[in-house]
Design goal:
alpha+beta
Length: 406
């Protein structure tokens, strides 16, 4: 009797083994495999991202991802078991099954005892004069992981721009998430931004500037000043990343018709366009100028939503919202701008347009057909070449631009 197996048995063994290991990846669905409250996921030193064209997240067998629930008294929960850790490593086993803290669990059963705590940290970098750049993200094992950066004026209570990365997979995100409340962190002093944005606060601010009851000409159930996102919450896939966009440093007072109209169209169109071109882009989303409205005597007045103890006006309502899109691979850029008002006539709008509107060139440049403005409510938007834009808005970081982004 021999101990040597027949060649066909060995061959079959290797084939079966190969098939098992070849198919033993973990594949996570954004719609099915994420629990709540959702942890922060760190993979290969950065935030975990979608990495398949189907909108899933794939891991090789035994590949790991760091799972973290940063913040006071937050712990990782595995099913019904609360661990004593806020950060653990999860190892891919098969499909949506992972090994965490010597336990085998479905990925959906990994969640936090409470929503992870994100932070906005002042950096050493300055912007737009002596203002500071703030990094917004999560601290995991004492290391800051930044999702976006904001140039913020603490005296004026205004964010000039937010810088973030948009990827081809930004079209995918978790569904069914409850919209978080906005947070102030420690950047706004004694100002309660939630009170500032309430309709009562808006009426008080406009009446103080324009005259008694003048706010009734502008504010109603369909038109009011919303918390306009700069980096869009829909640009991110998982719940923990989405939550970071709900910081007041990532907002500006934006009239609702524009927010739900042209601005929403731009955000959606840009995500789809970046998916088509298949490359990461850098986006600077910002505010510029202060919008004006006529007071009871017909004089145009700048609009602010708050005044400090010395009656100095702050929290300006911007005249413009914009997105500067830069592709570092091709060194191409373009800027998409929305006038933050539905109250201006055609003459005023024409004066406010400070560049040649390259989006009007759709017939000769059909590449811009991906952008469908929703200007049917009195709002107006336009697009600029980089060179003309920076003649007007000169406080952004200098970019090496060689051509136009389409």
């Amino acid at each position: 009797m021999t101990d040597v197996l027949p060649k066909w048995v060995l061959g079959a063994f290797f084939i079966i083994n190969f098939i098992f290991y070849a198919r033993s990846d973990c594949v996570l669905s954004l719609t099915k495999d994420f629990g709540s409250p959702g942890p922060v996921f760190i993979r290969n030193g950065g935030f975990m991202e979608v990495n398949t064209d189907q909108g899933n997240i794939r891991f090789g067998r035994s590949e790991t991802v760091l799972v973290s629930c940063p913040g006071p008294k937050r712990k990782i929960i595995l099913g019904n078991y609360t661990t004593s850790y806020d950060t653990l490593e999860a190892h891919c086993i098969l499909n949506n099954t992972f090994r965490v803290d010597r336990r085998i669990v479905s990925f959906k059963d990994i969640h936090c005892s409470s929503h992870p705590w994100f932070v906005a940290e002042e950096s050493s970098e300055t912007c737009h004069g002596r203002n500071k750049v703030y990094q917004v993200g999560y601290k995991v094992k004492n290391k800051m992981h930044t999702l976006y950066e904001a140039c913020f004026d603490k005296d004026l209570i205004a964010t000039y721009y937010v810088k973030h990365r948009l990827t081809p997979m930004s079209i995918f995100r978790q569904n069914g998430l409850k919209r978080p409340q906005f947070t102030e962190g420690n950047l706004f002093g004694k100002i309660r931004m939630n009170e500032v944005y309430k309709i009562g606060g808006q009426k008080k601010a406009l009446d103080a500037i324009l005259g008694e009851n003048m706010s009734e000409n502008y504010l109603n159930k369909k038109q009011f000043l919303s918390r306009g996102h700069l980096a869009a919450n829909a640009d991110y896939a998982t719940s923990a990343l989405i939550r970071t966009t709900f910081h007041y440093v990532n907002t500006g007072p934006q009239w609702m018709r524009g927010n739900a109209g042209d601005w929403a169209a731009l955000e959606d169109g840009l995500r789809r366009r970046v998916n088509v071109i298949g490359t990461d882009v850098t986006v600077f989303t910002g505010t510029h100028g202060v919008m004006t409205l006529p007071d009871k005597n017909g004089r145009m007045q700048e609009i602010y939503l708050h005044a400090d103890a010395n009656n100095n006006l702050d929290v300006p309502v911007p005249m413009y919202f914009y997105k500067l899109v830069y592709d570092p691979k091709t060194k191409s850029a373009a800027v998409f701008i929305s006038i933050n008002s539905s109250f201006y006539n055609a003459t005023t709008i024409d004066k406010l347009q400070f560049c040649d509107n390259i989006c009007d060139e759709v017939d000769s440049n059909p590449e811009y057909s991906w952008l469908k403005w929703r200007s049917n409510d009195g709002t107006f938007s336009f697009c600029c070449d980089y060179e003309q834009f920076v003649d007007e808005v000169d406080y952004l970081p200098k970019l090496d631009v060689k051509g136009r982004f389409y």
